[in-house]
Structure formats: structure tokens, C-alpha cells
Amino acid sequence: MSGAPPQGTGLILATLFVALCLSVLPMPVWASAYRPQWLALTLIFWTLTLPTRVGVFWAFGAGILQDVVAGSLLGGHALSLSVVAYLTLELHQRILPFPLWQQAVSVWLLLLLERLLSLWLLGAAGQPTPALNYWLPTFVGMLLWPWLATVLQRLRQRFRVGTTDQ
Q: Which phi and psi (to 5°) does residue 13 adopt?
């Protein structure tokens, strides 16, 4: 069947949906400053591990959904996530051989870029500059990367995602 989606597309969509939900889940005010960039982290994982299947198009679609769900500037997350996905695609062969703690530093730089692009778009839209805690999610994402990558890798192996098409 040539029209059927590749094996594992459901798992990729499910993890992106969970990441999107975690991105908008209500949190106490004190904890919201530490909310990781779940969608960006999940997209980075799938783009690193399945570069032939997940890339800029997926990032753009997920970013538009995040903009709609969060009520933010339409296209803002789409642009920043697309740029991050593009760079991840370009660098995936350099990042993947690293141990997880070194990957976390690369992921931190990608998350920092995503935040920087979002900050630029906020400024272009005439919104005030956020406080310094705006950058905290990048550090939280870096610290979470080894665990998130391990969990997603086990799910990928369990459901045999990407084993036949690479």
C-alpha cells in the first residue's frame, strides 16, 4: 500500500501532541518560569533520530498548532521551530555520536536560538521585553534532555519506529 503512512507516524504524532499539551498545561505562577520547551525538545529528538521523516514541515505544522493553542502571534513558533528543525537536520550527523550530556549542550544552543527568535518576533510585534527568567526554560530543557531522549528512544525501539525506512 503506497498511500499508507510510514510505520510509527502515530507515535511521532502522539509524542508531539503530549508535548503540545505539556506546553499549555496550567502551572503555578512560580513554576511557569521553569516550564521546558516541550515541543521544541520533542521535535529536536525526532529530527535527530529520523531526519528523513521529521523536519521543517513537521516543525512548521507543530509551531502553527502551538501558536493557535497558546494564543500567541500566529507564525511565531512556526518560524522559530522551523529554523531549529533546519539546523538540527544540518547538524544531526555531528550531534548524534555525542554522549547524551554533550548532546544536551547542543540542544541547549538550539533551545537558546528558538528563544532568541521568539524574542526577536516579540520585539517586532511591539511587545515588551520579558524578564531574565525568559531564558530559564532553555536550561531546564538542557537538564531534561538526557531523560527525555532516553524515554523517547525506548518508545521508538518498543514500537520499532524508523527501523525499516532508514
A: -60, -40
